[in-house]
Design brief:
Helices cover 30% and strands 20% of the residues. It has 475 residues and is α/β, with parallel strands linked by helices. The radius of gyration is 27 Å and the shape is globular.
Length: 475
């Protein structure tokens, strides 16, 4: 194996002789009788050396053995340098040597952050990450050399302990929020936006899918702001660079072969690109956008973006891009200073927007919210009365929109099979807990987590009734 060398040296590092024959780069992982053995080549500066130490520490902590030569390794990790041309040359040489002598190589370090230089030069490497990328390196190692069994920790699934049913899970991509809405205290509780590294998010998503999850529900305080705090810094997943940005994350999640549902999305301009992915069938055509109100004056008091006329134009654009999109939103009625005329503006907005799923709350003076100090608070009785009128108004819209599904065939995800032989499922238009359901008649052989085709035969205010199609039964 190569010895660590300084990034500034021009002298080639010493090579240890290793026996042949050469192993092909696409050779399948050997069925190791004992713990997996990982070879390691560390190049570059002291910072890279520390990265190597951390990777080696984690490998040993997980039960892997470290091989002193190529022949004894099940795969080789090469930590590269890309600071100057000679360092790049040496790093590429080390990668080539490892491929020739072993064949199964994971590349990390600064050279990995220089676009696709490594993949262009050596397309057979197993994975490529940038520097200080311990989680991404370990993900790549796990993918190509499964972690040794640990009877103490392997009782816990890779996806962790979940409180949701096995077939769906929430995927939190960030903490905190940069907005300062006057009715909200989230920033004081959780701080400003902190986006999770995209490689870490994708690793969690992969573990969830491997554990049986069929639907990922992406959540945060502001999903469309994902990556703003880190200036959309690139991370690594699957051996390729990927930006910490909502569009790139959604594209990556769409490769996992499961339903992906987006919640808490502000209507920023780049959201239109995500709608195009929905139109292409990459992710569920479902968007949860918390509009909160329609009156320009109330929105200003709330410190919320946009105005009703702009929002209506965006909704029209989204439906032009993806006609089957389901739009969900939440609203606050009885906000301090809200007049009857402004409440009527809100009802008129509902009529114009024709939203599919809507939730609402009567304003509540949460301790610490700056809206509590606004003039002209709305009396509690009026707040509750407006809430009732709001929900009644939206109920008529919801019922009309659900009637459009009558006679259509939909794919649904089964949540529950009941003793009366019926099943409860959800379509692409239904998030768990907050939206409606699809009740399936006579479906005793279904199981939670199955995705089946049904024909819609009934519709109410919030829910649909269906019969099985195809092999499970003809409607």
């Amino acid at each position: 194996m190569r010895k660590p060398v300084s990034a500034r040296t021009k002298k080639k590092s010493a090579r240890r002789p290793v026996p042949k024959p050469r192993v092909s780069a696409n050779t399948a992982a050997p069925a190791a009788k004992g713990p997996g053995r990982v070879g390691f080549v560390s190049l570059g500066c002291p910072k890279a050396l520390v990265d190597s130490e951390r990777i080696l520490t984690q490998l040993r902590a997980e039960g892997y053995e470290i091989s002193p030569d190529y022949a004894g390794a099940d795969l080789v990790v090469v930590n590269t340098c890309g600071f100057i041309d000679s360092a790049v040359e040496e790093s590429l040489g080390a990668i080539g040597e490892a491929l020739e002598e072993n064949g199964r190589v994971i590349v990390t370090g600064c050279l990995g952050a220089k676009g696709d230089v490594v993949k262009r030069t050596y397309p057979k490497v197993l994975a490529v990450t940038g520097p200080h990328a311990l989680p991404e390196v370990m993900t790549a190692v796990h993918a190509h050399l499964p972690k040794p069994h640990d009877p103490y920790t392997d009782l816990v699934p890779a996806a962790g302990i979940k409180l949701t049913p096995r077939h769906y899970a929430y995927l939190k991509i960030s903490e905190g929020c940069n907005h300062r809405c006057t009715f909200c205290i989230i920033p004081s509780l959780r701080g400003d936006l902190v986006s999770r590294p995209i490689g870490e998010v994708m690793k969690e998503a992969e573990n969830l899918v491997r554990g049986g999850v069929r639907e990922l529900l992406v959540i945060s305080q502001d999903t469309s702001a994902y990556g703003v705090d880190v200036k959309y810094r690139a991370g690594f997943w699957g051996g390729r660079p990927i930006k910490t940005r909502m569009l790139d994350l959604v594209r990556a999640l769409s490769e996992l072969g499961v339903w992906v549902r987006l919640h808490y999305v502000y209507p920023y301009p780049h959201v239109d690109d995500v709608i195009s992915l929905m139109a292409d069938g990459k992710v569920l055509p479902y968007l949860d956008v918390p509009f909160q109100h329609a009156s320009p004056r109330i929105l200003k008091l709330m410190k919320r973006p946009a105005a009703a006329e702009n929002t209506l134009r965006r909704i029209e654009q989204w439906r032009n891009i993806c006609p089957d999109i389901t739009l969900r939103s939440t609203f606050i009625v009885g906000f301090p200073g809200e007049t009857e005329e402004e409440f009527q503006e809100l009802l008129a907005f509902l009529d114009a927007a024709q939203l599919d799923r809507v939730g609402a709350f009567a304003y509540s003076p949460i301790e610490g919210a700056t809206a509590n100090f606004l003039p002209d608070p709305v009396p509690e009785g009026v707040r509750q009365e407006r809430l009732a009128r709001f929900m009644e108004h939206q109920a008529a819209i919801s019922a009309a929109r659900l009637r459009r599904y009558l006679g259509r065939t939909l794919q649904v995800l089964v949540d529950e099979v009941r003793a009366d032989r019926s099943a409860i499922a959800r379509s692409a238009a239904d998030a768990p807990e907050i939206d409606g359901v699809v009740s399936i008649d006579d479906a005793p052989h279904l199981h939670p987590g199955e995705i089946v085709a049904v024909r819609i035969v009934g519709a109410s205010v919030y829910d649909l009734r269906a019969q099985l199609m195809g092999a499970r039964g003809e409607a």
